[in-house]
Amino acid sequence: MIDINMKVQPSFYDDECAIVFSFYFDKATRKIGEAVVYTCQKSDEKEYSQDHIDTDVQEKIAYLKEFSIVDEYQATSMEKIQHFLNVIGIKKCVKHNLQGNEIAF
User: Fold this and answer.
1) pLDDT at 105
2) Is residue 50, in this structure, part of any structural domain at all?
3) Which of 10, 5, 12, 60 is nearest to 36 (CA)?
4) Rounded mean pLDDT of 42-54?
5) Record's superkingdom (predicted)?
6) φ, ψ for residue 22 (rounded to 5)?
7) 30 lies in which domain range?
């Protein structure tokens, strides 16, 4: 893995109940890019308990909103973002393609 530095700046949006993470990447003194990830809870899934009572499952999900990284560092940067998200309990990261469909990472 290429050795790059990652700085994270979180922002909380109370009205949307979401946290937005701004990621900044550099190598030595050279800025190599940034990314913005919007995190929230997705509650459109149902789960059935042992008593067969359906409950709302609130899956934490991350949406990649911006990703402008120098080409040679994109894979490493995405790995670092995914590792960070896993540490805070978010297992799913998606982005939307031009048709508006979700693409999982």
Assistant:
1) 63
2) no
3) 10
4) 56
5) Bacteria
6) -100, 125
7) 5-45+56-104
Q: What DSSP string runs through the chain? A: ----EEEEEEEEETTTTEEEEEEEEEETTEEEEEEEEEEEEEEEEEEE-TTS-EEEEEEEEEEEEEEEE-GGGHHHHHHHHHHHHHHTT--EEEEE-TTS-EEE-
Please give the span between the terminal C-alpha atoms of the chain, in angstroms, as a whole number: 18
Q: Domain for residue 77, yes or no?
A: yes
Task: Report the domain count for the chain.
Answer: 1
Q: Tell me which residue of 26, 30, 35, 33 sits closest to 63, measured CA to CA.
A: 35
Would 15 be classed as within a structural domain? Answer: yes
CATH number, residue 14? 3.40.630.30
Predicted TM-score (pTM) of the model is: 0.78
Task: Name 63's Cβ contacts closer than 8 Å, sequence gap at least 6.
Answer: 37, 38, 39, 40, 93, 94, 95, 96
Report which of residues 55 and 37 the model is more confident about.
Answer: 37
Any domain includes 51:
no
